[in-house]
Write a structure and sequence with these properties.
single chain; mainly alpha; 434 Repressor (Amino-terminal Domain); 0% strand; 6 helices; 59% helix
């Protein structure tokens, strides 16, 4: 399941981007990749927590983090 799409459905694209302090294009990229950016998994950002709070835990941070980024082959 694409939990980023669910957050967008619940909160709206511009509110999702605003909550993370990023552009809506970046949110669309996450949605297309079905994953938060690498920085989320290296503890450089906390987008999962921000998005979960935005939708009142209707989508949890754990659900968002379960969407691991795919490794791209060289």
């Amino acid at each position: 399941m694409n939990y980023i799409s669910k957050v967008i459905d619940l909160a709206g694209l511009s509110q999702t981007a605003k909550a993370c302090g990023i552009s809506y294009q970046a949110v669309r990229k996450w949605e297309a990749n079905q994953s938060l950016p690498r920085t989320e998994f290296t503890d450089e950002t906390n987008y999962a927590e921000k998005l979960s709070a935005l939708v009142n835990n209707q989508v949890t941070a754990d659900q968002l983090l379960s969407m691991k980024p795919e490794r791209k082959s060289a």
